[in-house]
Amino acid sequence: MYEFKVEGMSCGHCIQTITKTLNNLDQSAKVVADLASQTIKVESVQDPKLLAAEIEDAGYIVVSTRTL
Ligand SMILES: [Cu+2]
Questions:
Q1: What fold does the segment set 2-67 form as a domain?
Q2: CA 39 to centroid of ligand 1, rounded, Å
């Protein structure tokens, strides 16, 4: 499980966009995004660098990544 701290998430649509893009990379990824803390928790077998790159490609800034 990885936790990404991001900038730019402002509404439910952002969460949908990010969830969709991460599921394109890993169909079985479990994504839980929290607007208040601007964090995205992802359970995935994929490399966190690839996950972060997907989030950035969707238009959000990944500030930090940590492994939980
Ligand atoms: Cu939004």
A1: Alpha-Beta Plaits (3.30.70)
A2: 14
Ligand 1 is an ion; residues with CB less than 5 A from it: 10-11, 13-14
pLDDT of residue 32: 97
21: left (phi over 0), alpha (psi -120 to 50) or beta: alpha
Query: Ligand 1 centroid vs 55 CA: distance in angstroms?
Result: 13
Average pLDDT over residues 59-67: 98
Model-level pTM? 0.94
| Domain residue ranges in the chain | 2-67
